[in-house]
Amino acid sequence: MTDSGGQTTNPVVAKLRSWSANAIEEVIEYRGDTTIVVPRKVLRSIAEQCRDTEELKFNLLTDATALDRYPLEPRFELNYQLVSIPLKQKLRIRVKLSVSDPVVDSLVPVWKGANWLEREIFDMFGIQFTGHPDLRRILLPDDWEGHPLRKDYPVEGYRDIPAIATRYTRSRP
Amino acid sequence: MSAIGTTPFGQEIVETAIGPTKTMVLNMGPQHPSTHGVLRILLELDGETVLKAIPDLGYLHTGIEKSCEDKTYSQAITLTDRMDYLNPLGNNLAYCLAVEKLLGIEVPKRAQYFRVLMVELQRVSSHLVWLGTHAIDMGAMSAFLYCFREREEILKIFEFVAGQRMMTSYIRIGGLALEPPTGWKERVEKFLKMMPGRIDEYETLLTGNRIWLGRLKGVGVMSAEDAVSYSMTGPTLRAAGLAHDVRRAFPYSSYEEFEFDIPTRTEGDCFARYLVRVAEMRESLKIVRQAMEKFPVEGPFRTEAPGIIPPAREKMKTEMEALIYHFKIFTEGFAPPPGEAYASIESPRGELGCFIASDGSQKPLRCHFRSPSFINLQALPKLVTGQLISDVIACIGTIDIVLGDVDR
Asked: For chain B, how many helices (H) and strands (E)?
């Protein structure tokens, strides 16, 4: 069920709509999960709302990940899974990003746990997070070229990586 | 002595008889026995006090998420075994729950109870490995031998049921791989009779032990607010006082029908995490007992969904449609409708989630694992800053990381 108008029965969505009428672009209810699609400009403020509003209390950011819909545009989707421990409810926030400008506000000021999750997304997809305290690669070496979880990166990797290969042979005595 | 400057971390540099005092950078790992794998930590030390800790990961990164995108939904199950190698059945379960949610299929109660039984045995075995190795790190060699003796019994049950000790791949999409063999009940029963006494034995070895208390009490304290803010889950969160457990908060696989307590402590230190894990083992045994009693003798161990779930062996041999489905499922797989699903379970280390996106083809568009070790580990610098270097080992140990799960 997709709802892009104003009618929804979900109290979480209704609460967020009452805070800002235009903050939610789309609501997707699929297999019991609620997903709200938000414009990237409001991501951090909506995250703060989710955490601080009395009726929502989404205090735990469980997961953040991206997916790549190449060759469709906008090709990247960021998915944040929120859990409210006191109220036992879940919400997924989604932001869509295009390849020409894959930049979004970091959520580290809202949840400290976003730190490594965002570093992993940066490492694997090349999405930049503004306001992140330490945006470095996390799983791959610092001199790795490319972002492996993008769909245009081959599954078996690149056989010869001339730039990296010569760098290592030169540095060895 | 007067200060002649300060370090970047605000410590005074003092002139001494052998020159000015300095901080030291120590490279711990990646080959270090107490990091339980290949974790490297850069430690900035002032004497024995840790001023700063920077974990460096990725030494065990094998690109499991990328590999999953190139496999059919059923093939990817074998990859999930190898992430958190102390909890392969839990990984199977998280993945299968996500795929089942994506497909919108129900699993028969019989399979659900058996899944619970296997996953709870796995939790006990994982906590036993943790307890044994952590005790070695803290200098108590004998606890390790006792823990591995009991873990062996659990692995024997797994081998009997699934044919494999560790990488079982026993939980499959729609149910189980095989009908549980005759005689499993006696084996589990025997284990359940033996185990509570054995847990008492570990407690007599460790809980009141003065060295154990000295190494763990008051070390690596994490408050509940900080733990939530750092997205920590599992025993680390419950030791800080928050009774959050996915099995209770968002029940899966019929956990709502089981009676069990969620052990919590309020101290938030390493010793509290130890107590929570020991209490969890006892709770798991209670759940295993209930699952055994609930398990119906008759019934299917796999759901029926033509074209998605492999048909029963008997059917496949006698019906033509079933044979065709069987062939098609194992050659080209099945295609869930486009959409996304996120399912999570309570693994021994915390919330293990699996996010799967389908674009309507036979292979997942994206398969992401929310691994509890990875996310709990990011609080390590917070835990160890200001502590002694020997406490770093206690903190790594009680977060209970598995590097296969951290790096994937």
From this structure: 17, 11
3-class secondary structure, B102: helix
The two structure tokens encoding residue A125: 């997809």
Chain A residues whose beta carbon lies within 8 Å of the beta carbon of residue B222: none
Helix axes B109-137, B88-103, angle to 10 degrees: 140
Q: How many CB atoms lie within 10 A of CB B13?
A: 14
* Per-residue pLDDT at A153 exceeds 50: yes
Residue B94 pLDDT more than 90?
yes
Q: What is the pLDDT of residues B317-353, one digit of tens each?
A: 898 988 998 898 888 888 899 999 999 999 999 999 9
Q: Per residue in A15-42, is it b (16+ CB within 10 Å) or e — as a string?
A: ebbeeeeebbeebbebbebbbbbbebeb
> Which residues does A36 contact at the CB level (< 8 Å), separation at least 6?
A13, A16, A24, A26, A27, A28, A91, A92, A93, A94
B241-299 confidence digits (pLDDT tens) = 888 999 988 999 889 899 999 999 888 889 999 999 999 999 999 999 999 998 888 88
Nearest of B198, B91, B104 to residue B151 by alpha carbon: B198
Write down the pLDDT at residue B33: 73
Across the interface, whether the CB atoms of B249 and A88 are under 8 A apart is answered yes
Predicted interface score ipTM higher than 0.90: no
Residue A80 forms beta bridges with which residues? A64, A93
Contact B101, B341 (CB under 8 A): yes
Tokens 């080992």 correspond to B393
pTM: 0.89
B375:A32 CB<8 A: no
CB pair distance less than 8 Å for B250 and A88 = yes
- Quote the CA–CA distance of A26 and A35 in Å, as a whole number: 8
Give B226-269 as a DSSP string: HHHHTT--THHHHHTT----HHHHS--TTGGG--------SS-S
- Which chain B residues have a beta carbon less than 8 Å from that of A107? none
User: How many Cβ atoms sit within 10 Å of the Cβ of residue A141?
Assistant: 9
Dump pLDDT digits (tens) for B385-398: 888 888 888 888 88
